[in-house]
Amino acid sequence: MKKSEKRTKVYLLDRTKIADPVSFSSWKDFLPKERWEKTVRPVREEDRKTELAAWLLLYHALKEWGIPEESIRADGAYRYGGHGKPERKKKEVCFNLSHSGKYVMCVVSDVEVGCDIEKIQKVRWKLAKRFFSEGEYDILEKLKEESPGAEEELFTRFWVLRESYVKKTGEGLGISLEGLDFSGISGYKGKKNGKALKERFFEWEYDGYRIAVCEEKDGEPELVVCSRTIDNCFL
């Protein structure tokens, strides 16, 4: 397990507070060319806001990490890895992004890291039957009987833990998830095929959302909710 003097940081931003980038064209000069093109491409306004919010969070996170502004905003400074995971070409810092509902999330670290955020939702039983372990599924069924409604948060928790793991590895949901088990997670570790994972998992519940971060590193990350005005927070 890696020890580091730099603490992993997790950022949240409410994307609904951001103006549509199409109607606020000054963002065009602020974003790298490829990022601007990706931001204005979606047809739906909420998708454009999500793209912009993700960039703003990443910019803010990298700037606080100590990456020079000209390097953050430089054209061609980013690429996609073999499994489509975005990364810095220089790899001087690792990051990951996620979004759900009104929130966009960004995590930065000095080791490979994955994250996920999901609004607490009703159990999708077919999905749980397919991807969850027998132990996890049994816990959900029992919880539904004993405390109806409580199973929704647990289902979401199990899901974001999985997502954070596969996003950390960069392999995405295309890999087999059946071997993962978080029914008895302890010491911040889950299991795969009966063996404890080397990765550690950190979790939060915030405003009706479940959040998870996965990395091979000691020390709990810091959660930062960006609630200031956009100009003060990012410019």
UniProtKB/TrEMBL annotation:
InterPro entries: 4-PPantetheinyl_Trfase_dom, 4-PPantetheinyl_Trfase_dom_sf, P-Pant_transferase_sf
Domain 4'-phosphopantetheinyl transferase: 113-214
Domain of life of the source: Bacteria
Protein keywords: Transferase
Molecular function (Gene Ontology), one example: holo-[acyl-carrier-protein] synthase activity
Entry keyword annotation includes Ribonucleoprotein: no
The keyword Transferase is assigned to this record: yes
GO CC list: cytosol
EC number(s) per entry: 2.7.8.7
Swiss-Prot/TrEMBL GO biological process terms: lysine biosynthetic process via aminoadipic acid
Family: Belongs to the P-Pant transferase superfamily. Gsp/Sfp/HetI/AcpT family.
Protein name: Holo-[acyl-carrier-protein] synthase
